[in-house]
Design goal:
The structure is a homodimer.
Chain A lengths: L13 H11 L3 E2 L2 H7 L13 E3 L4 H13 L4 E4 L16 E4 L6 E5 L4 E5 L4 H8 L4 E2 L10 H6 L7 H4 L2 H4 E7 L5 E3 L13 H5 L8 E8 L1 E2 L3 E9 L2 H13 L6 E5 L1 H11 L8 E8 L1 H17 L2 E7 L2 H12 L1 H7 L5 E4 L2 E2 L5 H13 L7 E4 L4 E8 L4 H20 L15 H8 L3 H11 L14
Parallel strand pairs in A: 2-4, 3-4
Antiparallel strand pairs in A: 1-2, 5-6, 6-10, 7-11, 8-9, 8-10, 12-14, 12-15, 13-14, 13-18, 16-19, 17-19, 18-19
Helix pairs in contact in A: 9-11, 9-14, 10-13, 14-15
Family (chains A, B): Belongs to the FAD-binding oxidoreductase/transferase type 4 family.
Keywords (chains A, B): FAD, Flavoprotein, Oxidoreductase, Transit peptide
Protein name (chains A, B): D-lactate dehydrogenase (cytochrome)
């Protein structure tokens, strides 16, 4: 197991560990297994355990513990479900991991206003289970059962974003604790406001470096009258992508439109016991009235046929839909199961839809010419896709080759007007790309970080690299 | 004419005025009438003329002039069309007004990606005229023919926001000049990104206090196959509001749903030569397929009937729609024409939709009990409404009474979970309310301002009050 080189060099002072233990008893842990579990996410990045793990139960406790950490100049790392993919939760400079799993209550459902208030540790699946009998749902769905606090902190997205937007579009307000241990509320429950700087969006995507999110007000949506899932196989990936582009450009309001290349389909068949044809495929979902869903499916069917799509079939039964999306959500785990013992270097570019075909074609060609096994999958309705490069992190040759492919992929996406990360964030894994993409705004980002966290205690070293 | 008390006390150094004149010739003006015109917006707030007006033609010129101003520690005030409503463009500490009217080119229409690149001085009407033959449109519509740069700077909104969102949801990226005179681009053309702090949203709504917006990438939408406008009169304002709430809560995707109280209808009839019944009314617009528009109109008709709506009628002809919306857009001017010689103190609260009926009812009762004439109008689908209090700014009694009513209205909106401004912003007019609404985040806002504009040269004194 790799250990981050800096992790051994810095430890929280014993006085802080003693103070946290005295104040929070069993909710502050120095247990090695817990520390180790909190220093790693689901990525290939080198883990680094924090010095201790704190399980707050309310915002006031978070504020109190932040003040203690601050008094001892000790780093503070927010931890949701540990499902991040760019090393966001690792503690390379040591510090205290704040695990929000006990702040997991749905605090208020305002059905009339289509909004909800939750603790940061509520997961997206938990929220949707609690909303089920109210005919409402929260759409943002990154696949993993992440916490909503973590999803806001990484500006998460996923399969429904093409229709409902990402966390950027679906957070009304955040309660957070600042680096000084002050409690703030960034917005209100009004659907719009022009009152001052947009501190809500400043915290969304800040990856725990500007404040600790403790509660969220989120937008909700009525469960559509009808939903239908569909799969469609294509002779080649170009036909699948062309169908996506045409679907988006003609304004068809698909709720989900996901690509899986042949290798990813093979992985899903094996992992989720499906028997899909091992060809490039699109997974779709349509939401609306029964009639509208039927119309959308028919319209998509025509588009797909014109691009060589075959076996187009759609399922309205909830169990069939769920089986399909469960398989899609497990795509990452399925990909990793293709090469047991290896890790997955996950990439995440997003380009304007007009550039998607070229970006995917050139990326797939790069991968095919390499020795690395790498399924391709993505939320292509947004122009967003991933490859999962299966590598042994201890094999310097494989790591170098994956990095080379990754560099080429990001450089290509940026040249096409896209971004180095559609939804996974920067963490420690994409800092060089952040500098490449936003070199001109990076000094401002660092100025904002310096202004809000002058002692650099909040997830230090991540995102803007301070 | 009132002159802001501070305006006489500070002037830009002659050396700066000379340098700007030498460099930009006739595009830098010291003309008194131009200065005076650039120190006022459409509000009742006390105007304050800048020391000079600069008309840049490109971003590089903006950067150059910012560096000159900075060298002379002179304030810089961005000016779009001067249609702001909270004193945003006044120069109470003197300085140079940067008028973006010459940066008025549509730079690139990317129809395939449904986005457009514009200079900050392009107005919303100009953009939509240039898009007309492409079957695309930009939806954000604050009524006034504001510039898109100004609309982004004030986080503008308006009649279409209930369906298409505000500037917050419709800007993909901004080119801006920082206080240091550096040129930045805050985003890209990808539909989503998780790359670093959200500098785009930090600039949206910052009212020229964090940077000068020079270009924008905006989302576009396909012109709907069919559009229909409708009007519906109600016996009382409660019935109109109840219809709005039910329309939103049942998910009917209205494109516009606007309230006008009886007094505002009287004003519009007189100003726009209409003959609407002088009762509370809703103005609506439906977008979609011909069939969907028909269904939406029918569904709304049922809701309205149940709440005492009458005379519900809908118009699909473009000329009839335009006449109606022209009248709605001129509501502010129509209101002011009710009391020639008076000015309008415009209010702008926004509450969760479940609180809208109570907020409007109590506000209208307050106004009815006062001597001040004040029509009520609003984008009620968002929970956002305005009163236009017709006062003589030189009559201390009227000003005091209007302020009392305004205070009560904002306090009420905040108590109901709303905001002190849905779309007009803070400027100099709402600073006390910003402190009331966001007292906890105000220190962070000020820290951000200090970090990005350490010498306090960008629209000083506005928004966060530094």
């Amino acid at each position: 197991m790799n250990i981050h080189p800096a992790a051994e060099n810095r430890h929280a002072p014993a006085a802080l560990l003693d103070a946290l233990a005295a104040r929070f008893a069993e909710r502050f842990s120095l247990n090695a297994a817990q520390r180790e579990a909190h220093g790693r996410d689901e990525s290939w990045h080198i883990p680094a355990a924090p010095d201790g793990v704190f399980y707050p139960e309310c915002t006031e406790e978070v504020a109190e513990a932040v003040k203690l950490c601050r008094a001892h100049k000790t780093p503070i790392i927010a931890f949701g479900a540990g499902t991040s993919l760019e090393g966001q939760v690792a503690a390379p400079s040591g510090g205290i991991s704040f695990d929000f799993s006990r702040m997991n209550r749905v605090l208020a459902v305002n059905a009339e206003d289509l909004d909800v208030r939750v603790g940061a540790g509520v997961t997206r699946k938990q929220l949707n289970e609690e909303l089920r009998d109210k005919g409402l749902f929260f759409p943002v769905d990154p696949g993993a059962n992440a916490t909503l606090g973590g999803m806001a902190a990484t500006r998460a997205s996923g399969t429904n974003a093409v229709r409902y937007g990402t966390m950027r579009e679906n957070v009304l307000s955040l309660k957070a604790v600042t680096a000084a241990g002050e409690v703030i509320e960034t917005g209100g429950r009004a659907r719009k406001s022009a009152a001052g700087y947009d501190m809500t969006h400043l915290l969304i995507g800040s990856e725990g470096t500007l404040g600790l999110i403790t509660e969220l007000s989120l937008k909700l949506y009525g469960v559509p009258e009808a939903m239908a899932a569909a799969v469609c196989a294509f002779a080649d990936i170009e036909g699948a992508v062309a169908s996506v582009i045409e679907t988006i450009q003609c304004g068809l309001p698909v709720a989900r439109i996901e690509i899986l290349d042949a290798l990813q389909v093979r992985a899903c068949n094996a992992y989720s016991k499906l028997s899909l044809p091992e060809q490039p495929m699109l997974f779709l979902e349509f939401h609306g009235s029964a009639k509208s869903v039927e119309e959308q499916a028919a319209e998509f069917g025509e588009i797909a046929s014109a691009h060589g799509g075959s076996g187009f079939d759609w399922a309205v039964k909830a169990e069939d839909r769920n089986r399909l999306w469960e398989a899609r959500h497990n795509a990452y785990y399925a990909a990793r199961a293709l090469a047991p013992g290896k890790n997955g270097m996950v990439t995440d570019v997003c380009v304007p839809i007009s550039q998607l075909a070229r970006c995917i074609r050139e990326t797939r060609a790069d991968l095919d010419a390499s020795s690395i096994l790498a399924p391709l999958v993505g939320h292509v309705g947004d122009g967003n896709f991933h490859t999962i490069m299966l590598i042994d992190p201890d094999d310097a040759g494989e790591v170098a080759e994956a990095k080379r492919l990754h560099d080429r992929m990001v450089t290509r996406a940026l040249a096409l007007g896209g971004t180095s990360t559609g939804e996974h964030g920067i963490g420690s894994g994409k800092q060089a790309f952040l500098a490449e993409e936003h070199g001109d705004t990076l000094p401002l980002m660092r100025a904002v970080k310096q202004a809000l966290d002058p002692e650099n205690l909040l997830n230090p070293g991540k995102l803007a690299g301070i």
